[in-house]
Design brief:
82% helix; mainly alpha; 2 domains
């Protein structure tokens, strides 16, 4: 009977002490994972605050290309209200015509798209530049045609 008592006492103490030691192990692993998560969060915050120093260069180039395309169409077609000519020129530009006007507009469009992709890749603020210059011209032609049809 004394052997049975000692076995029960040993088992009870093992269960009691074993349960305490497991909670300590769990607490230390939880603390370690919290510390690791905090470090990861700090690294992410640091990465977000570091800004790309060429964002203004890209936005400036996109603005220049956009203004160039709009000014050329404005001077050449929209002031004279020549929608047929504007549509024809837009068709030539989209099909990569060899005319000087089309080549210049295509070069501006290519520059715009190049700087847009770089700015987007580096998380610059490009909300104003989502629509390309030729798409804007296309939309303007459609809008002017609707206005002409209403009259």
């Amino acid at each position: 009977m004394s052997n049975l008592k000692t076995i029960y006492i040993l088992l009870a103490s093992l269960v009691f002490l074993g349960g305490c030691s497991q909670s300590n192990v769990n607490n230390t692993t939880i603390e370690k994972t919290k510390i690791k998560k905090e470090k990861i969060v700090k690294k992410k915050v640091i990465k977000k605050t570091i800004s790309y120093k060429y964002c203004s260069k890209h936005t400036k180039a996109m603005t220049h290309a956009l203004n160039y395309v709009q000014d050329e169409f404005e001077k050449g077609y929209f002031l004279q209200k020549d929608l047929v000519g504007a549509k024809a020129q837009l068709f030539l530009i989209q099909n990569k015509s060899s005319s000087i006007f089309a080549q210049n507009i295509n070069a501006a469009q290519d520059s715009y798209l190049k700087h847009y992709s770089l700015a987007k890749k580096n998380r610059c603020n490009i909300t104003k530049y989502r629509v390309s210059p030729l798409k804007r011209i296309e939309y303007k032609i459609k809008r002017l045609e609707k206005q002409k049809d209403k009259k």
